[in-house]
Every structure is written in C-alpha cells, then in structure tokens.
Amino acid sequence: MIYSFYHSVAGVEGELTSPALSAEVKIIRDRWGIPHIFAANEKDLFFASGFVQAQDRMWQMELLRRAGSGRLSEILGTKTLDTDRLMRTLGLKEAVRKDFEKLTPALKDLIQSYCDGVNAWMNSLKWNWPPEFLALRYRPEPWTVQDSFAAKVILAVALSEEYRAEIMRAKLVNKLGAEKALQILEEDVGIPPALEISELFSMKSPDFPRDVGSNNWVISGARSQSGKPLLANDPHLQISLPPVWYEIHMSCPTLNVTGVTMPGVPLVLIGHNDSIAWGVTYSYADVQDVYIERINDSRDMYLNEEGWKPLVKKEERIFVKGRKTPELLEVLWTERGPVISPHIVKSRLPLSLRWTLYEGGNTFDALYQLDKADNWEEFCRALRNFDAPSQNFVYADIQGNIGYYLAGKIPVRPKLVALFPFPGWQKEGRWSGFLEENEKPNVLNPPDGFIVTANNKIVPDNYPFYISSDWFSPFRANRIKELLLGREKHTVDTFKAIQNDIHSNAAGLFLPYLKDVQGAGGKVKEALDLLKNWDAEMNAQPAAALYEVFVKTFNEEVFRDELGNDYNDFYALFGRKPAGIFRILSDRASPWFDKKNTPVVEDRDAVIKSSLESAYGWLEKNYGPPRKWDWPKMHAIEFQHSLGHVPVLKFFNKGKHPVSGETFTVKATFSQGYETKVGPSYRQIIDLSDLNRSISVISSGQNGHFLGRHYGDQIPLWLEGRYHPMLFERKDIQANSEGVLIMKPTPEKK
Q: Residue 521 is part of a domain; what is its CATH number?
C-alpha cells in the first residue's frame, strides 16, 4: 500500500486531451502549488477548475458532499451516525434541491462543466487513487451539480447556532427565573411568556460547534501610503489537513479572478478580480427560529393558526458500513421546517426549526456575478442574490471606493420570536418576509475612511429592525480600529502587523479588577505579582498562561454552581458575547459571585482570589514553576487529517506547533481545552494601488496528498505570520512556475 501511496501523487505537468473542451487550456502551477488557469472561454475554464480541484482535494470534496447529504456512515461506520442523523434531520437535502431548482440554465451548464472536469480526473485514474480511498478500499461516485452545493450547506450549519441559543435562553429562564437569567443574557433580550418557557425544562441539546468567527477591514486611500484602498480579511474556521480553503486563479476573456474557494465550489468566494476586492466575515444575523409545535396523538397532524394541518413524513435510510440493513429515521415536517426533537433536541414538547436555508436561494449566481463585478453597483447587484449563510462583505476598488454590504436573507419578525422558542400556532410568530436590501446597514465611502467587522454588532442601537443578539463582544473590532487609528498612513506591512496582533483587550478589561484586590497572600499574591505589570500580550510570558487559566476558572466558579449541567453549553454559547461574565464583572457585590454551597457571602474579590489560587496551583501541578508556563505551547495546534485519529494513519497529521493569541485577540485562536482548534484559516491583504503587491496564506498547503510537496508547506508561513504573493500577472506566474499542464480538445473537437 505504501508503494501505491507514493505513486498516487498527482502530476502537475504534461498534456492531455478531453472531448469536453472546445479550445486549449493552460494550467500553470506556481511554487506554492496554486493553479493559474488560462482558458479561451468560461465553460473550458470551469472544466479545468473541476479537474485541478479533484487532483488536489478529491478526498476532501468527497467528505463534504457526504457530510452534506448525511452519508458519512456508508464509508466510516457507526462513529459518524450521529452526524448523519443531524444532517438528515436538518433537511439539508431539501435545501440543496431548492437551490438546484433556482439555478439558471446558463449557470447550471457552467457548473456541469466543472463536474465534467472532476469526473474526467476520476476517470483518468486506474489504481493510483488518493491514499484515503486506497485505505478505505472504495471509489467515489461521479460528481454532480447538486454535490457542489454541499459546501454551502455545511458552511451554513457550521456558522448557524441561533437555534441553540434560543433553547439555552429558555432553559436559563426556566431554571433561574427571568430576572436572574436576564442578568447574564444579552442586554437587549426581552422577557418571554412564562407559560411557554416553563414547559421546556427537559430540553437538552447536542455538543456545540467550535467557535467560528472572522475579521475584515478596509481603508480608503486617504489612510494608505499609496493613496488607494487596502483590504484585509482572515476568516476563523476549524484548522484541518487539508485546509478548508483552496487557492485558485481563473482567467478567460470574460472572467479573471483569484483568491480562495472551498473544494467542490467552482467559484472564488474571497479575493479580487481586475477591478474590485472583497473579504467576508460571518454576520451572526439571526436566521433560525425554534417553534413549539402541537402534534396530535396519531403524529400525522400539527396545529397551525388556521387549524390542524397534515405533517409531511420523510423516511431517511442511513446505510452504515459493516451493517446489512440501513437505519431508518423518520423526520416530520411542518410548513415552518423539520421537527428537530427528539433527534437533535430532547424535549417534552415537539420543536420545529425554521431557517432561511430552507427557502432556497441563488448564492452560486451571486458568486458568479461577484467574481465578474467591475464596480460598487455590480457588486451590490450580485450580493442581492446571496441568500445564505449571511455574511459581512467589505469592498474596495481600483477607483478608490470602499464599502460594506450585509448579504443574505434576514427574516422580519418580532424580536421575541427570534430569541425564544415560540408557539407555532400563534400568528404573531410568522415571518412577514425578509429585510429589503435598502433597509440593510450598507455603506459606501464612509467619512472616517475605514470599515471594520469582526463578528461584532453591526447596527446602531436605534436601528429599526431586529437582526441579531448573537454578536461577539467587540474586543477584536475595537482593537483593529485602535490600530488603524494609531498611525496616519498604512501599508501592506502595517496590515500584516494588525492581522498578527496578539494584544488582548479582554485581558485589559479584567486586569484593573485584579489589581484592585486587597489583602492577598501566598499564591494569590504571587499570581497578582505576575499579572500586575503584564502588557496583555498573549505570548510566551507566564502571565499570559496564568490569565487564560484564571479566566476559565473564574467563569466556572461564578456560574457552575447555579447552572449545573448546563454550564458547558452556556459558556460555549455566551462566553464570547457581551453577556455572562462581561455583564456582571463591574458589580462587586453581584449575587452571582456568591457560592450556594458555602456559609459566607462571597463577592467579586473573593472569587477572584480563589480562582487565582486554583489557576496558579493547576499550572504548578501540570507545568512546574512559573518560568515554565508558556502560553503558546499550552495553546499548541496539531494539524489533523480526518483519518488521523486512527493510530495506523497518524502520519496524515502534522504538529504540534506553539500558537500565540486567544479568542479575543485580532489573531484569533480558539481553544478546546487550551489547545488551538480554530484560527485564521486564510489571510489576505489586497493592495488596490497595485494588485500584484497583494499577499495571502492558507493554514497548511494546497495539496491534499500527505506525500505532496504542498501538503504542509504553508504551515511555517501561517505560524510565523508570513505570507506569499498572490500572483496575478502572467509574467509573474510564469517566473514562479513549478509546472505546466496543457489541456486540449480531442482532435474531432477542433
């Protein structure tokens, strides 16, 4: 098998023919393995895009489409059954079907050309399949247009947790009472009807997804040294091998665009073309609502405002490797969406989920038009078709304009419906449509000359429409603004420094309260001495490690005795919002600081002391004296392959490597325990004065083959805050060429 592995590395040079092509296509791979595709027309361009993506990432594409359709267990067995049940219950196949139905014939034809390219590569193989297929001893099915929608629905699932937040708010109100629960929930949350919430106490929810986020910002020429805009973006997603993003440059007479896409998607999602550049962050717009349903004893009818209506029953057959018969799963659907209890949420009452994803949309058409847009008007026209997941787009063009656009369908309904589970039979809970494009907080050329989004609140307090309460605390956004305003003129190099900044404004909020503690002795005093002169940089200083362990301990000491088994879910959802500890920290005598199981009444200082003592002791026990406390080593990352958990396949993984930063630094690195799992999956900086000075980096490498030279060659760049050029001009690409593949039509096509 090892011999087969070596001989399955795809070649990047040579010549081949295909009856699907109408003219010659040239694919130049640069020294980072990035394909630059030059074609005579869009159809041939899409075919070649499918071919090279399959060459580099077929296993990843296979996993994405199987995850999106709930078919992982067919190849991976029982360990992925819960994931398949989740995806089937969420009705992702229904979302894909509606998207497919809305495709224009012209775009469907182009995506089919992409599929033909994927399948042409698969048909070119004999025994030399990628290692994962060899290890699992199976061959993938042909790629279809519907398969290319898998990345969209998987990204939507990863970025959408509003229904879980609704459930957690309901549980907290039921457990604590409305008055106490509202002390640690988002500041603009209203009080739900007590009767409805009281019936939800038995609800449980599955494991929460890991934190995701992003930064993007843009400045006008008035703030840059060149006199033209600069644009930066770094989306924060799970770091894996191969990485979530695929770098690609697609060029023909009607389209010339470079940046990143997700494997399986034939269009650039983030990047620039000849005229404009853009970057995205997740908007955290609330696009999901949970409804309490009344279902009759026969489980064939549900109550709506007009009366009883028939439920739609969908039987899902999940085939499992090693089993002779499939697992049957019945999913009930109301007009709002699928009933998610008991498969996703445990509840005495049936609960359904409404989600903009179920409306179907034209996101692929939006991306196609975006890749070709020449100006702000065309950019906006493209994004009007972008439906899900909702994103903050920042924009810049070579003419010097900058802008912001909130993309995606955002439902219009009362805030109470959005924040808590609501009775489905009450007409007040209906969605009355979607926010009009001219009602969104979009902006062109703001007077202060910059725009920043970092998953923070994007509308003023007096904004007339409800968009969300799920935003992050504004620490990252405020730090970016602080650094942008800290110098008169910026360059690509100053943007590099901002993207890799590890100063924690969140720590800056905590430190004054620590320094205010009186009467400390022993290990508490030693801890305070370490922290008193700390500069809040999340690097290898012992104070950084102490701070992180302290904050985790402090949150747990404050909330676990009240929340019990709900604490972990609460912290996962609310620990990075302007809620929880951030709501009560300034109140020294908040009742939340008092521990129920002690005879004394603790205040903030008492809990700070006990948390510092516990944190100091934990670090001593696990790492020795303070001089050995190294936060980047504690916060290390292992680049993990999807099969790397299997002992005999651990060679797929790479690491571990120390990582600086934390949740609230601009260089955002999110932990599971203390190890990094989520971070900047892609960094780009676009210089609109000269697009050839633009730079980027992905988290590991272009090639998905563990023996390929580009499997992990960008890891050192990513770890060290370095970048590679985003080659765009043909002469620069040829000067950095690693190999050229010529694709020609078969003779009869000439």
A: 1.10.1400.10
